[in-house]
Amino acid sequence: MKAITYSSYGDPDVLTLSELPDPKVGPGEVRIAVRAASVNPVDWKIMGGHLDQLMTVTFPAIPGWDVAGVVEEVGLDVPEFQVGDEVMAYGRRDWVQAGSFAEKMTLPVRTLARKPAGLDFEQAASLPLAGLTAYQTLTRLGVSEGSTVLIHGANGGVGSFAVQIAAGLGARVIGTASERNHDRVRDLGAEPVTYGDGLAERVRALAPEGVDVVIDYVGGVLQETLAVLAEGGRHGSVADPAVTDEGGEYFWVRPDAADLEHLASLVDAGTLRVDVARRFPLEQAADAFRASIEGHTAGKIALSIGG
Length: 307
Description:
Elements: E1 2-5, E2 16-19, E3 29-39, H1 41-47, E4 56-62, E5 66-74, E6 86-90, E7 95-98, E8 104-108, E9 112-114, H2 121-125, H3 128-140, E10 148-152, H4 157-168, E11 172-177, H5 182-188, E12 191-194, H6 199-206, E13 211-216, H7 222-228, E14 229-237, E15 249-250, H8 257-268, E16 276-281, H9 285-294, E17 300-304
Parallel strand pairs: 4-7, 10-11, 10-13, 11-12, 13-14, 14-15, 16-17
Antiparallel strand pairs: 1-2, 3-5, 3-8, 3-17, 5-6, 6-9
């Protein structure tokens, strides 16, 4: 199979198009013919060595945790799926080696959900990691009908899902974004506010009593969070471990098939949309990483593979 690999830490220039053996299929696993993957900042942060203290990387490594494709072989004790099923997954394992930037990928059943019929493969591959991050942070912080929620980074890959999910739960959502992205944030279901100096005052103008929940998807906003949090409010971050020093939660998303199936049901119900901003062929994975590093896309970045 063809796969994108890297044999040492570095920038996107270390990525190489390689020919590798097809992965084996163990008990409780399926092998899929990959149709699409998506790029997340964690992918190039791992490649750059920035998570070396946290994640074990076995070289040569194939990047990518988000994937969508078609089941082509099932392992022992896999009654849930059969050959031909269209699936998606947040395919993170306990170490980094056999990722989704490849023509084939083996995945544990515990990570898999069926692809919503209304999404193409690139959209489906763009949902798992960011969508699960949004859903798990919202539910763990107790967002529900009647909550007022501030989302830092409402136009980003995770934040755009969080806005939609929180609004669907019946929460009032305030979302930070640059002014040029306010229309999109409003369309997703939030009241937009511009980030930067004076953010706390702008949020307090909308919610004078403060907000019940603050979720940080960008980092560097802890003081603003504390300034707008109502008494007894809850807050958390995926980007700033220091939140734990101020009574908040620091999150790391978990693969969870049931949660992913729930996200698929929201897509099927028309209450959650997946925006793909740019699509690249597998061979241009380095360019896809560069686009992600630049950080100016309104929506996800996907790789089209096979099919």
